[in-house]
Amino acid sequence: MPQHATPPARADYGFDAPGIMLGLLLGGGAAVLMGCVIAALAPGAWRYAGMVLLLLGAVPLFFGLLMVVYAVVGKVRTREHILNLAKLRGDETVLDVGTGAGLLLVGAAKRTQRGKVIGIDLWASKDLSNNAAATTMRNVVAERVADRVEVQTGDARELAFPDASFDRVVSLLCIHNIEDKADQARACREIARVLKPGGRVVIGDYVPTHAYAAAFAGAGLTVMQSKPAFGVALSLMWIVVAEKPV
Ligand SMILES: C[S@@+](CC[C@H](N)C(=O)[O-])C[C@H]1O[C@@H](n2cnc3c(N)ncnc32)[C@H](O)[C@@H]1O
Description:
Elements: H1 18-41, H2 46-86, E1 93-97, H3 103-111, E2 116-121, H4 133-142, E3 149-153, E4 166-172, H5 181-194, E5 195-205, H6 210-218, E6 222-228, H7 230-233, E7 238-243
Parallel strand pairs: 1-2, 1-4, 2-3, 4-5
Antiparallel strand pairs: 5-7, 6-7
Helix pairs in contact: 1-2, 2-3, 5-6
Bound molecules: S-adenosylmethionine (SAM).
S-adenosylmethionine binds near residues 104, 128, 157 and 173.
């Protein structure tokens, strides 16, 4: 992986699902604006149509704004929460599944001075702005953790690691991108497979994580929690934590 002689000034972890976010903001914003104009200026019953348009536009606009709030504030808060739940001592081998620009990867590396952190991803551009291994490595270099970080291209559904390779597996906003529910469960089973006995997995996603929890339980893991963390993410977020028995 090429590294820069001069590290860039600061890391940039991008916007999740940028197309959806822009669509919600622009579509919702336009509907709200048109609704306001119609409600204010149109004659008679047309005013009610304007109010309906305003209300219909407010819903996508709200969710678009939530995505912005998450990207600007919630992302780092969620990262720290997930890494707290991972209970890192500092010498672990950690896997970040769907690392994107390396948000959890870099955070985990900062907490594992004597460990090793690997991030894998398919680099889907629809899922994250500027999604590429080179972007991730720029962030890794900017955050000065390159000595203990590795970035690989890989698929969560078929992890290219032997059984029991990792002390911790973390993942944020990745699994829901796998379209087929059966493949999502397969990814969870793969995570369980590469986890060492005594190891812990922490996954955050913007959809309820109970199906992931069920897949982990089916793979023999002990599920510690699967619950919302809206207050942490300032957006939709559920977090599942599970451990592999020794
Ligand atoms: C919304 S981004 C989140 C990135 C990062 N975890 C974060 O929180 O900033 C989802 C990431 O999952 C990756 N992804 C989607 N499906 C994947 C799969 N089957 N295997 C590995 N990565 C995948 C996408 O390429 C994208 O980088």
